[in-house]
Amino acid sequence: MPSHLRALILEDNPSDAELILHELRRAGFEVDWQRVDTEADYRASLDQGWDIILADYSLPQFDAPHALRILQERGMNIPCIIVSGTVGEDVAVECIKLGAADYLLKDRLIRLESAVSKALADQRLAIEKQQAEAALRESERFARSILDGLSAHIAILDETGLILAVNHRWRAFAEE
């Protein structure tokens, strides 16, 4: 399953970043990556077309919850997986509530492949849902404009006689 992956790694320890990369490559990913360890570098790197962000929970002057908030502020839909040392379940729950796709412990990176695959699949589904909703809104707008463009007084009823929609001419007639 060789798959190309663009990964931004928020990690202050180069050895830990290499462990993450090793696990991704072992899982069959061809990884283009960049490691950052400051908020300034993180912010500067966000617009580079990343597929995923893999973030340590705590860095000397920056942390994963803040990184997640920055993604939300920018309205970016990049899945972020927290990969950290030993921290409690409450911290993991906090990160998930803030929008993290998953939370893994560094000593259990065997789950990294499935976490990345799931996060990417979830992101694709979310994008497809947004596109479908936008297409539906456009279709409804188009149907409304056609209905309103007709010169006849038109009301659309359901099988029980309940009015579902009326066109502009019908509304104007009803207001007279």
Rounded mean pLDDT score: 90
- Largest sheet descriptor: 5 strands, parallel
User: What would the principal axes of the Cα set say about the shape?
Assistant: elongated
Q: What is the percentage of strand-forming residues? A: 15-25%
Question: What's the SSE pattern?
Answer: EHEHEEEHEHEHEEH
Spatial strand order of the main sheet: 2-1-3-6-7
Helix content: 40-55%
Structural Rg: 24 Å
User: Low-confidence runs (pLDDT<50, min 5 residues)?
Assistant: none
What's the total count of β strands? 9
Give the distance, in angstroms, between the N- and C-terminal Cα atoms: 67 Å
Q: Total helix count?
A: 6
Question: What class do helices, strands and sheet pairing give?
Answer: alpha/beta
Describe the model.
The chain is α/β, with parallel strands linked by helices and 176 residues long. The protein is 49% helix and 23% strand. The protein is built from six helices and nine strands, in the order E-H-E-H-E-E-E-H-E-H-E-H-E-E-H. It has helices at 14-26, 39-45, 64-74, 89-97, 112-149, 168-175; strands at residues 3-10, 29-36, 52-55, 58-59, 62-63, 80-84, 102-105, 155-157, 163-166. A five-stranded parallel sheet has the order 2-1-3-6-7, with helices on both faces. A hairpin with a 2-residue loop joins strand 4 (58-59) and strand 5. The chain starts with a strand and ends with a helix. 23% of the residues are buried. The model has no long low-confidence stretch (mean pLDDT 90).
